[in-house]
From TrEMBL:
This is GNAT family N-acetyltransferase. Residues 1-152 form the N-acetyltransferase domain. Gene3D superfamilies: 3.40.630.30, SCP2 sterol-binding domain (3.30.1050.10). Homohexamer; trimer of dimers. PROSITE patterns: GNAT (PS51186). It comes from Streptomyces fragilis. The active site is at 123 (proton donor), 408 (proton acceptor). Keywords: Acyltransferase, Transferase. Belongs to the acetyltransferase Eis family.
Length: 408
């Protein structure tokens, strides 16, 4: 079997092989998940081919950008279209593709890669760890009065501002959604860019895919669009919000108020909220919103530990020695992480470690969405001195809960 790079000529065979592995059919941009496969990058993809020339496995990568704590934007290959034909599974095809892909990404200078995992048991062995989480909130609309927040008097937090909401059809939005999304993702740790090509091809779930949707667009007092909610209402009178994308909490509150005030609706479902989202605290009735479908979303794999650790912003000051095992790449390193004034230095050291961990666990804590102390308690990370886990918690923390709702 050979693992080979693809070219534009391989597009159809690549898509067919991927869809067969997922037991899916091609959809058009206006249907369900749209033509999610249409943005595959053939100059970053791999085909596994048998000795007699049959394609049996695929792995791709999208050229995305990830927002780190502190606001740095770094290239993040988004691993996608990983599939092996049902006839060729458990024979090491995926392992061979992962080995080649990680080597290629490193050679291209990437410091990390990311993916969404179809099954949670697949990717840890390759060094990926779950790093952001998301959940659904179902709100009984008739219990959903929003309390008047104390911050309203002082103008802080999510206090309402003058602004307006306009309802458009998806087809009327032009580049508006793309522009708002791009503003949002630059300040949200864990968020990914959405290349222009995706929007123009309709390559993704709604509202990237042009399936029929209503789009509530929020504008600030100057008329500048600063948020949108993409939604549909089904026959059961449930209004489902695909995503609420806003540049700040006040715009989110205004859009939440709008969808929760929608007549002829019994329930409002927000499909994606980060853990700890303030919406729940805004209801007069704390139990008006029911949380469910809590799941991992973005998985992170560090490829260059010192560069990755110095790229992100940090909170607090302190020093930790991390001993990191990378069994898949056969690497083992010790790094002294010195954090001061929001920045870190990271250099190899022979000092005794404070924490020992696997590279997949470092991926999990990297964006600040998983507490190192949780992984100590779970037996993933070993702490060698009292206080080391608590110091790691304080340093790795992000300015806001990392969240990714981009599906790829
Ligand atoms: C980013 C994304 O695209 S996620 C999408 C992943 N793809 C899918 O879910 C599509 C359907 N599934 C498939 O195509 C395949 O089953 C794949 C790609 C998940 C796995 O491919 P395979 O070629 O069978 O994997 P491979 O033989 O290299 O397995 C490597 C190891 O992982 C384990 N493994 C692989 N897949 C799974 C799984 N789904 N569940 C549990 N263990 C698994 C294997 O048992 C093996 O373990 P071992 O080394 O201890 O024996």
């Amino acid at each position: 079997m050979e693992i080979r790079s693809t070219t534009a000529q391989d597009f159809d065979v690549f898509v067919d092989t991927t869809l067969t592995a997922f037991a899916m059919e091609r959809e058009t941009p206006a249907e369900g998940d749209g033509a999610w496969w249409s943005a595959f990058e053939m100059d970053r993809s791999l085909l596994a081919v048998t000795d007699d020339g049959r394609p049996v496995g695929t792995a791709g990568a999208y050229s995305l950008e990830l927002t780190l704590p502190g606001g740095a934007l770094v290239p993040a290959p988004g691993v996608t279209a990983v599939g092996v034909l049902p006839t060729h599974r458990r024979q090491g095809v995926l392992s061979a593709m992962m080995r080649r892909q990680l080597a290629d990404l490193r050679e291209e200078g990437d410091i990390l890669s990311v993916l969404l995992s179809s099954e949670a048991v697949i990717y840890r062995r390759f060094g990926y760890g779950p790093a952001t989480y998301t959940q659904r909130m179902t709100v009984d609309r008739h219990r959903a009065a929003l309390a008047r927040p104390r911050a309203e008097e002082t103008g802080g937090g999510a206090a309402p501002r003058a602004g307006s909401v306009e309802v458009l059809r998806r087809a009327e939005c032009g580049d508006l959604l793309e522009e708002i999304y791009d503003r949002y993702r630059r300040t949200q740790p864990g968020a990914l860019s959405r290349p222009h090509r995706w929007w123009s091809l309709g390559a993704g779930q709604p509202p990237i895919a042009r399936a029929p949707r209503y789009i509530a667009v929020h504008r600030d007092a100057d008329g500048v669009a600063d948020g949108y909610a993409s939604y549909s209402v089904d026959k059961d009178r449930t209004l489902t919000v695909d995503e609420t994308i806003t540049v700040d909490d006040a715009a989110f509150t205004a859009l939440a108020r709008f969808v929760l005030g929608h007549d002829l609706v019994e329930k409002v479902v927000f499909k994606h909220l980060p853990p700890g989202h303030p919406l729940r605290w805004q209801f007069t009735d704390y139990r008006a919103g029911e949380l469910g479908d809590s799941t991992d979303w973005l998985w992170v794999r560090l490829l260059d530990i010192p560069r990755a650790l110095t790229a992100r912003g940090w909170s607090g000051d302190g020093e930790l020695v991390l001993e990191v095992d990378d069994p898949w790449l056969g690497e083992h390193g010790r790094y002294r992480l010195t954090v001061q004034g929001g920045k870190a230095d990271c250099a190899p050291t022979s000092q005794a470690p404070d924490l020992s961990l696997d590279v997949s666990d470092l991926g999990s804590v990297y964006l600040g969405g998983t507490l190192p102390s949780t992984l100590v308690r779970a037996g993933h990370i070993t702490s060698h001195r009292p206080g080391a886990a608590e110091l790691a918690d304080a340093l790795f923390r992000a300015e806001r809960t990392p969240h990714c709702l981009h599906w790829f």
